[in-house]
Write a structure and sequence with these properties.
Blueprint lengths: L1 H23 L5 E3 H12 L2 E8 L3 E7 L6 E6 L4 E8 L17
Antiparallel strand pairs: 1-5, 2-3, 3-4, 4-5
Length: 105
């Protein structure tokens, strides 16, 4: 289960890298990590469900609420600033079995 969630996190990391340029043109929603995590917990009931290392020692995290289904993807720089990348609804944890090597998707 943890391996699958980690693989999903890496997929989101790729999405972040692919859309990084577009977000660089809009004003960033960033704050110190402690403040962002507290806001996600207090306002949305979200806790961390996944984490991964992105380029330049940036950490990508997925926060979600199992009760409301809300989710948020953040990135945190080495300086401790956390920025919101994406958010949405209907978060669902999957426990799919990966295909055997060479068997295709």
């Amino acid at each position: 289960m943890k391996q699958q969630l980690f693989a999903l996190s890496l997929g989101f990391a790729g999405l972040i890298l692919a859309t990084h340029h577009a977000f660089a043109q809009s004003p960033a929603q960033c704050a110190p990590r402690d403040a962002v995590v507290a806001q996600l917990a207090d306002k949305y009931g979200e806790t961390r469900h996944g984490v991964g290392l992105v380029a330049n020692n940036t950490v990508m995290e997925i926060f979600a609420s199992t009760e409301s289904g809300s989710w948020t993807i953040t990135i945190t720089t080495g300086a401790g600033m956390t920025c919101l990348v994406a958010s949405g609804e209907n978060y669902e944890t999957l426990a799919e079995v990966l295909p055997a090597p060479g068997k295709g998707a």
